[in-house]
Amino acid sequence: MELERKIIREVPGVPSRYSWSVANWGTKWNSSGLSVLRRQPGLVDFVFDTAWSCPEPIFRAVAAQYPLLKGYVLSWEHGEAWNVFGVIGDGAYFSHRSDHEFLPTLFEVSALDHELDYAAADALIENWRAISRCLSDPGSGAAVVDLATACVAAALPADVVVRLEFAANCQACLDSDAKPDMPAHNGGAADLAFLSTHDRIRAELDQELVGEFVSLLRQDVLPCPGENYLASEFKSAAEQIARNSSEEELRTWAALAMFRPGVSLDMRDADSLRAGFISHAARLYEEVEAHLERRADDLTQGRASRKAEQEA
């Protein structure tokens, strides 16, 4: 990159670009797959891949070299539940590592839509003063990440945010053997109450079914109008689970599910149990969609109330 080359020329005693890269980038490999998302006077937004997921030294070097530079850094490893959020400003670089992947998830989803991508980035820019001021407090790392996450989430449509929060809260619940403390994301209390009601994730097959829903929901956070990918794929997933389950596993599930309101199961044989499981999955899909719609309405009303208070 030209910025990198310029820094190298200005650093005495550096024999080559390769030597500088090893010393400052943390690896002999440099960035790859660089893509500029937005470029305008005084602002550039870009993403890249690198062999080292968190090239902290390069950002410290850039911050020291250009004390007037302001910016954010978000690094994460695909498939891993950790990320690093960094802030460049006043000649210094601050970063905090988090085991929660919600902030990267917001940006990954935003990248699927041009307007949402701009809205997410602009939210951090507009809240620069509040976020940078938060850095002055000792041990403020987690608070900075929480504030940045809240700013980005507030800039995105309510239905998108609640779907991502529900997926994250469900995953937290499943990862803790369906016996979690309060999930980490907004809406956690409502989502946990939904999952706990009628023991929706008590049986192992229930947990497998909800896990499939979460996986599909993350792929369909921005559904295309007129399409119902999530419903059809979830039906296929439920049918696959039913086919792969033994009669004993289905009877264990049915022994718990039969006491849920509105559930009536034919337990004569394995085929009847499979049909009952698939029918239950269809009911679960409708219940989840209704829950998400209520959550989105509540979030929209909450945003409107806060805006009215600020303008009063």
Tags for this model:
59% helix, mainly alpha, two-stranded antiparallel sheet, 5 strands, 312 residues, 2 domains
A few lines on this structure:
The protein is mostly helical and 312 residues long.
Describe this entry's structure for a reader:
The N and C termini lie far apart (48 Å). The protein has helices spanning 2-10, 17-25, 56-65, 102-110, 114-126, 128-134, 141-155, 158-175, 188-196, 204-219, 229-244, 247-257, 270-311; strands spanning 32-40, 43-49, 71-76, 83-89, 92-98. It is elongated, with a radius of gyration of 24 Å. The longest helix is centred in the C-terminal third of the chain and has 42 residues, at 270-311. It has 13 helices and 5 strands. The strands form 2 sheets. Strands 3-4-5 form a 3-stranded antiparallel beta sheet. Strands 1-2 form a two-stranded antiparallel ribbon. A hairpin with a 6-residue loop joins strand 3 (71-76) and strand 4 (83-89). The chain has 2 domains: 2-14 and 30-156, no CATH class; 159-311, no CATH class. With 312 residues, the chain is mainly α.
Helix content: 55-70%
Unreliable stretches, pLDDT < 50, 5 or more residues? Answer: none
Order of SSEs, N→C?
A: HHEEHEEEHHHHHHHHHH
Q: What does the largest sheet look like? A: 3 strands, antiparallel
Q: Mean pLDDT across all residues, rounded?
A: 85
Q: How many β-strand stretches?
A: 5
Helix/strand structural class: mainly alpha
What's the helix count? 13
| Rg value | 24 Å
Note the gap between the termini.
Answer: 48 Å
Strand order, largest beta sheet: 3-4-5
Estimate the strand proportion: 5-15%
Number of domains: 2
Question: Which word captures the global form?
Answer: elongated
